[in-house]
Amino acid sequence: MDVYSAIQKRRSIRSYKPDGIPDEIMEKLLEAIRLAPSGGNRQPYRFIIVREQDTKEKIAAACRWYPGRPQGQGFIAEAPVVIVACGSVNNAVVRYYTDEGVTLTTGWDVPPEVDRNQADYQSVMDIDLAIALDHLTLVATAEGLGTCWIAALDEHEIKRLLSVPEDKKVLVVMPVGYTDSWPEPRPRKPLEKIICYEKYS
Ligand SMILES: Cc1cc2nc3c(=O)[nH]c(=O)nc-3n(C[C@H](O)[C@H](O)[C@H](O)COP(=O)(O)O)c2cc1C
């Protein structure tokens, strides 16, 4: 499947068959993550592959908060593989401003006097992580697998469950598996609502 077809075919899948994912396909998914670009090529992330049923159920329970989904997100535990995406705020490239102008460095190298809560302090960690996971979703689609981005999660609970160090972030949980229900495409805004030319309008 070419990349255009994968982009068109991908959906959020919220129902999974128990069938496992063959090793050679898992390798392709993980290689898609590995090849993703990242700010400064730092790859400031760690992806935890979870297959144990008990752990998947606990993760699903920690994703119960989604307001638009009062029934919870139990479907996460149906998937044979759940990927938990963790980012390292310190390892990622950050951008901030001083009297000298814009500075690019890594989270580790930000001087202590810089306020990380200032409005224009920006880490690219979330972008890095999203690119890697998006690579994964497209390769998964090409392999006939469903995925779903899950950001409605209790980060503290998942960190505790999976022994994620305090200084790392858990940004996304992503179930991956085969499905019998490939939904119709969800609507998107027309191009003129999201694209403008030369200036913001
Ligand atoms: C960053 C992000 C977070 C999301 N979080 C959730 C979530 O917690 N639970 C869920 O069921 N879907 C979640 N989704 C899926 C979106 O609802 C879905 O992508 C959107 O409705 C468009 O549908 P489609 O993916 O089928 O095209 C998330 C998507 C993104 C990109």
Radius of gyration, taken over Cα atoms and rounded to an integer in Å: 19 Å
- Report the structural category: alpha+beta
The DSSP helix count reads 6
> What level of helicity do the residues show?
25-40%
CATH class: Alpha Beta
CATH superfamily: NADH Oxidase
Q: Please, could you describe this protein's structure?
A:
The chain has 201 residues and is α+β, with helices and mostly antiparallel strands. 29% of the residues lie in helices and 20% in strands. The protein is built from 6 helices and 7 strands, in the order ααβαββββαβαβα. The strands form 2 sheets. Strands 1-2-7-6 form a 4-stranded antiparallel sheet. Helix 1 packs across helix 4 and helix 2 packs antiparallel against helix 4. The chain is globular and about 55 Å long. It starts with a helix and ends in a 7-residue tail after the last helix. The chain binds flavin mononucleotide. Flavin mononucleotide binds at residues 11-12, 14, 66, 69, 73, 148-152, 186.
What topology does this entry show?
Elements (H helix, E strand, L loop, with lengths): L2 H7 L13 H12 L10 E6 L2 H9 L19 E8 L4 E6 L2 E6 L15 E2 L1 H18 L3 E2 L7 H8 L5 E10 L13 H4 L7
Antiparallel strand pairs: 1-2, 2-7, 3-4, 3-5, 6-7
Helix pairs in contact: 1-4, 2-4
